[in-house]
Amino acid sequence: MTGNDNRLINGALKLHIAVCVLFIFAPILGSFVFSLNSDRFPSLPLGHFSTEWYRLIWEDPFVWAGFLNTVVVGLIVAVIATVLGFGGAYTDFRYNFFGKNVYLALALLPPTIPVVIMGLAMLAFLSRVNLSGSAISIIIAHGVMCSPFAMAIIRLRLSQMDPDLEAASWNLGGNEWATLRHVIIPFTKPAIFAALFITMAVSFDEFAVAWFVSGLNETLPVKILGFLQGQVSPRINAIGSLAFLSSITLIILAQMLLRNSTKDKP
């Protein structure tokens, strides 16, 4: 293969990546642009620059109620999912047992289930135990959905650990709990924080399951659906832009932590 062929292939790959990025982010960029447009309807040419729609959502108590509910649910879900994910990842790392492959398949299954089926299943289960329609129902549903993400992140970090670290702790007289506290948890700390950020972002953006189980305790994505019913509100662009910035910030923080943990690998 000649140098010209290599340049052609590299150029084609870069063009492909650019088109994919544009395809993914163009709607988000369009939403942000229209959120700063004075016109009520998203159309071209644009009107003059305005932050009116941001002012309206700032003064809207229903938006604040949905946002605060989303943040509270997201924080609780992040903690629960990360604890469960750490337990699942450490069990996989530390122990060998019959049916381990089945255990891993079931533990990582929820994200592969269609969200409509997951929502209906959660609604049926939570209704039977009289929890449907409460904030607890959203926390339970999102906890089930987010735990596999935390488990995958922490499991990846544990796979990078030198087994001799545990052996050294035992040789120095540490039991399993001491080793877990002073060796395992410090080593996985970057992944634990990354899992917290990722699971909160997943909970923050999740709509379908929350719509099934939330009742009157609506999260922000469910509130947005309410704005869409019967009217075209430019506030949706402003809300969507802020929600995207919040989620992407959490994901970037998680990625930075994971990258630093890889550099610090012993």
Helices and strands in order:
Elements: H1 3-35, H2 52-58, H3 61-94, H4 100-107, H5 115-128, H6 135-158, H7 163-171, H8 176-205, H9 208-213, H10 220-228, H11 235-263
What would a concise description of this structure say?
This protein is mostly helical and 266 residues long. Helix content is 76%, strand content 0%.
Description:
The structure is a single chain. With 266 residues, the chain is mainly alpha-helical. It has one domain (60-263): MetI-like fold. The protein is built from eleven helices and no strands. It has helices at residues 3-35, 52-58, 61-94, 100-107, 115-128, 135-158, 163-171, 176-205, 208-213, 220-228, 235-263. It is globular. The model has no long low-confidence stretch (mean pLDDT 81).
Q: Give the overall pLDDT as a whole number.
A: 81
> What is the CATH class designation?
Mainly Alpha
Shape: globular
Radius of gyration: 23 Å
- Low-pLDDT parts are none
Strand segment tally: 0
Class by alpha and beta content: mainly alpha
Distance N to C terminus: 39 Å
CATH fold naming: MetI-like fold
Number of helices: 11
Percent helix, as a range, is: over 70%
Instruction: Estimate what percentage of residues fall within beta strands.
Output: under 5%
Number of domains: 1
SSE pattern, N- to C-terminal: HHHHHHHHHHH
Largest sheet: none
Q: At the fourth CATH level, what is the homologous superfamily? A: MetI-like
Assign the CATH architecture.
Answer: Orthogonal Bundle
